[in-house]
Amino acid sequence: MSYDLxxxxxxxxDLHAQNIGAxxxxxxxxxxxxxxxxxNIAIGAARLGLKPIAFTAVGDDLVGDYVLRYLRDAxxxxxFVPRKPGTRTSLAMVAxxxxxxxxxxxxxENPADIHLTLDDAGRLPIDAxxxxxxSGNAFSRGSCAGAARYCAERAQHGAVVxxxxxxLRPTEWSETRAYGRTLRxxxxxxxxxxxxxxxxxxxxxxxxxxxxxxxxxxxxxxAALDALLDQLVAAGTVETIILKRGPRGATVISTHGRADVxxxxxxxxxxxxxxxxxxxxxxxxxRKGWDWGPAVRFANxxxxxxxxxxxxxxxxxxxxxxxxxxxxxxxx
Length: 332
Description:
By secondary structure, the chain is of the alpha/beta class. It has 10 helices and 16 strands.
């Protein structure tokens, strides 16, 4: 069987509050689904018609049973998902208070996915799959960091396009500076970098004394961020950067210059998972050979549809839904 994509990093069982608008302590029921940014992207890509492989790990527990069944039902290949005895499959719980409050609680004490090994990675058919998606969080702790780097190095020697979603989860890192220092060491192995403004600042200018053009970096200074991103591309470290700007759309930064791609105005119900839907749409469109402008526009539509729905992976749109949405909002 041929595959389109391998995703690398964490997986969780997600519990999304059914009581929209209720504070967490008043929630009386949850909807279950599978989450974790890179695995979400695999699910989103499958919903859009791709054949993805999830490279993650689960514990030898009931939650692991649930995750594996959910992924198989979603069309995601699970035969490269090892079970790690003595660990637990991680869990995430979220309350839903639109339009902008979605408190998350993670349960990741010794989670199985941080124990992925080089041997596990060596079983992947990386050379035969055209796209690889790395989660920045995969480099945070455990042997998973080495396994993820191995995947990137092996992809670099073949005709594989490597995407990295910066995927900042501060609780997974000892400090913000560790996040930046680690990911900057990986970036030369990456073709396409995907991140929000906050994530890009944390990855590129985390040091207290960081300077750009002789001036100290202010995280609220968009011009400083633009300069950092331009420097990264000009140095040839990364070929293309996709800067996610939420409702304002996204910006494509490459050696060919910059292009702002507008987003879509929608009423948000739940923003959790919108970035994962975006990444899935971007990878799907690039796999189809689309130029960056239409590919990012399609990705923006995936994210816009996602935020209007309840849930995360359970709410990812299909290709047909995205095309219909775009057609009714001015096209690509």
